[in-house]
Every structure is written in structure tokens, then in C-alpha cells.
Amino acid sequence: MSPKAATRPGGRSARVQQAVHTAVSELLAERDRSSLTVPLIAARAGVTPSTVYRRWGDLQELLSDVAVARLRPESPPADLGSLHEDLEAWAVAFLEEMASPPGRAYVRDALAGDPGGGNAGRCSAYAAEQVQAILARATERGEHVLDVDVVMDHVVAPMMYRVLFRPGPLEAEYARGLVATVFYRLMPLP
Structure pTM? Predict the structure, then answer.
């Protein structure tokens, strides 16, 4: 995402961003992404194409910004009562979302529109925040926990590698296996 997109929240700027993001989402539901253009999106959003170009630079940066917003979790991870259950449920849901056709498209868009890597960092931070919430709850329950980087490196990273580079379906058992491996091979002893 370019620095242009980092405008102050609220007011007209927030309304324009919301209108444009909504327009992109609606148009993607109606037509192939290859047919999207900035003028088409601007018309749907009720803004001028110059507003879109000024804020996002080009279509790919806009799609990238929309993708990052869509990849942000809407709620905290489920609390099932134990670190293993919480982490497993989160990993399965994360894999399901990222490996879905829309999820894969959002990941590709997020990365393609930001060669500097800021969007990748934001998406990684979203996942790390979710994992950290799971680990914090487990700590509060008195459970022995893993380091967030261990989970990111051994659960999230392999899933994202497969989402990005290995087409085809990914099963929940894959996510469960990664979590089990972390617990049985990498969990530090109390």
C-alpha cells in the first residue's frame, strides 16, 4: 500500500474509502476481476476516477488495499478452553479462509499491489495478533505456552506457502497436523 492510502481516519476520507471498497467488493461479486477498471469502480462508488488515482495510485494498489482490509480478522479467536484446542480451531479456520478461492485472490492482490512489503507485514501482524490472543488466554489459564514466533514459523508459514505456491484443496487435517507437530515436537518443557 502506498503512503497515499494512509490518510486520516473519519470524515470524507473514510466515506470515500468505504464507498470505493464497497464498490470493489460488489463488482468482484458481479464480474471477473480482469474486467475491473478504475473508472468503473469510481462510477460505482460515486467518486471521480481522479479521486481513486490520487488516493491509491493505480488499480493494483486499490485491489491490494481492499484485500488487506478483507484479510483483517473481524473477531477474536474462539476460546475453547485449552491452548491446543484454541490453536487448532484457529489454524483450521485460518487455512480454510486463506485456501478458499476468494482468500487466495485476496492474498495475491495484497502482495501484488505492494512491492515494498508493507501489506505482507500487515497481514502477518493480523495473524500474529490472533495467535498472541490465544497464547495470552492460555497463559491466564496457567497453561505452558509457545512463543508466538514458533507458531508463526511452524503453523502459519507452511500453510501460507501452500496457499501461495501449491494449487489445489487444503484439508483441515493439514492444519491440525501442523499444530500437533508444534505441540509434540516444539513445545518447551515446563
Answer: 0.84
